[in-house]
Amino acid sequence: MSSRTTAALLLTLVLAFAGCGGANVKLHDPTIPEPLIDQMPLHVAARYPEVFDHFVHEEEIIGKESWTIDLGRSNKLLFTQLFGSMFTEFTVIEGDMDARDLDIDALIEPSIDAFEFSVPAQSQTEDFAVWIRYRIKIYDKEGVQIANWPIAAYGKSLATTFGSDEALQRAAILAMRDAAALIILQMDKATGISKLSEARAKSEPDVPQPLNLQTTAAEDMRDESL
Fold first, then answer.
1. Given this model, what pLDDT does residue 1 score?
2. CA 14, CA 178: separation in Å to the nearest integer?
3. For residue 145, what are the CA distances in angstroms to 9, 81, 120?
4. Which residue among 24, 89, 162, 210 is least packed, with the fewest CB closer than 10 Å?
């Protein structure tokens, strides 16, 4: 058997082993590196959908097994860390709270439009891959929607470097970090959210300046001579 044939056979066995049996994969509190950015001077609140507390996705491989990935609260934790680093004031509100009652410049509502992943048995490669399509809606303090921004994120990880479960976990985390990087770099350009700080400045009343009560030296001398 030639070395080329042997290598091809080994790759086939690796892919078969990585893709067989299915798995239930769970993420545990992924984080992003602390962004080195200037915070936007905005008071921002975020409201998360219920699915952000327990997001689970399953892929059925035709004629084979099923793979399940449980993101748990990962999206909620990731977005909270991200927005907390981007704005000078940030808070998370519950679903039944009316944001118009709060002293904020903007309300952000992230959601997941689509989630997909592939395993080596499907792609005939050594990669686990994850695609996530997020959507970010932004409202001003009056509740008027000012942005509806879709974000496509991607992550992949080698099955030969990590075990099957860990490779899928890593691919999902990399996809979420990819989304975080896109938000940091493109959010203001895509949504114009920073302009809301200008609106706040215009709405705040002018503070009257104190009167100048200082007297000149000549006036002081005149007063003393009386």
1. 53
2. 28
3. 56, 23, 41
4. 210
